[in-house]
Every structure is written in C-alpha cells, then in structure tokens.
Amino acid sequence: MRQDSGIGVLDKALGVLHSVAESPCGLAELCDRTGLPRATAHRLAAGLEVHRLLTRDTEGRWQLGPALVELAAHVNDPLLAAGTAVLPRLREITGESVQLYRREGTSRICVVALEPPAGLRDTVPVGVRMPMTAGSGAKVLLAYSDHATQQAVLPGAKFSDRTLAEVRRRGWAQSVAEREPGVASVSAPVRDPKGAVIAAISVSGPIDRMGRRPGERWATDLLAASDALTRRL
After folding, report:
1. What is the Cα–Cα distance from 222 to 123, expressed in whole angstroms?
2. For residue 27, how far is the Cα from the chain centroid?
3. What is the pLDDT of residues 83-109, one digit of tens each?
4. Which residues pair with 173 in a beta bridge?
5. Whole-prediction pTM
C-alpha cells in the first residue's frame, strides 16, 4: 500500500502513475484501477501527459513517459548501478527473468528488472509495489526484516516464521505458484558493506522451465550474483 502524504492531488497523481506503470491503459481502466471519478482521472492523466510523465501508445492508451527516464538518469543510487551491471549476466546464464527488490514498510518494490529476449516470461515492471505475503523475494526481505515488520506481515502470508528461519539458514528462498499461478522463483539477499540486507535478487519464470525446486537449479548462480552485487556496493 502506498503512503498518503496528506496532499490530496499529489497522492492521486502518484496513484495514476503507479496504475499506468502496471500496464498501459485507457480512461475507463484507469478509473477502475484508481477508484477516481472519470473527470478527475482524465484531468490528472492529461496533466501528467503535458509534463511528459505519461504519454500515449499507438492505441491511445496512457503509458509511462520519457520524463521519468530523464529524471531517473540523475539518480545516484549505487544499488541500481550495481544491478544494471550484474543482472544482465544472470539473465544470460538462466535464460529467465531477473529482478532486484527493495523493501519499503510491509511491501517490496521492483527497482531493476530484465526479461529474456524471447519465450514466455515473468514480467515484473520496475516500480511495481507488491505485498510481502508471497514469493521468494518477499521471503528473503521479510526473513531479514525487524520483528515488528514480520509480525505485521506473517498473519496474511503464504508462509510461516519457520520458513523465514530456513531462509536465514540456507541463504536463499524459493516459491512455486505462490505469487502467481504457473510462476516459480528463487531469491537471495543483497547486503551492504556492513552486512545489512538491503535488497533481494530474484530469478523467476514459468514452472515448466524453472521446475518445482528452482533453488536446486539456480541458487548457486543466484548467490554468485548476490555476492557480485555486494562487492560492487
């Protein structure tokens, strides 16, 4: 859940951006996603389009605009820089989708995502926010979270505190059809120079390719990529 700043128009505009980030959409679908009245949703989307934060695709649907990329280019984030350097090699090795997640409160946010060039893939848009109640990335981030965060998330999670203890013991997590039907994933923690877990690196894809024990297949390569990220940090 996104935080409320108390500035109504700003929160609504950010809600429009996050909704469009899920996938391009027209006005009717934007209203359904945001819960905003038609006139409000159109006014905000049109205003964001003027500022090039949104643009239109060939079918007239709103999609994220070039101004976001231009702004992002000025962000000095060592984790993003490290992810951009390390994730392409992991994608090449696995042939699957790879992601980098950060925790924010009781949610996780995808900050880097790369897809394989062909075939069925698990597409996770950059910027998408997910609950930490399912998926291997959620297990990793929650396993190394503070006690209060764990207690807030675990009652609604598809795993238990015993699962988190196992993640801490072996250093990685896996999931099968937990976040999405037909999708499997394996994740490992990324640590800062002081050893604190600041992110989760993940490999995900169809169960038919990943198998029902994806950790047995990809954990070694994933942990090597995690170590490479930590060294770059």
Report:
1. 18
2. 25
3. 888 999 999 999 999 999 999 899 999
4. 187
5. 0.72
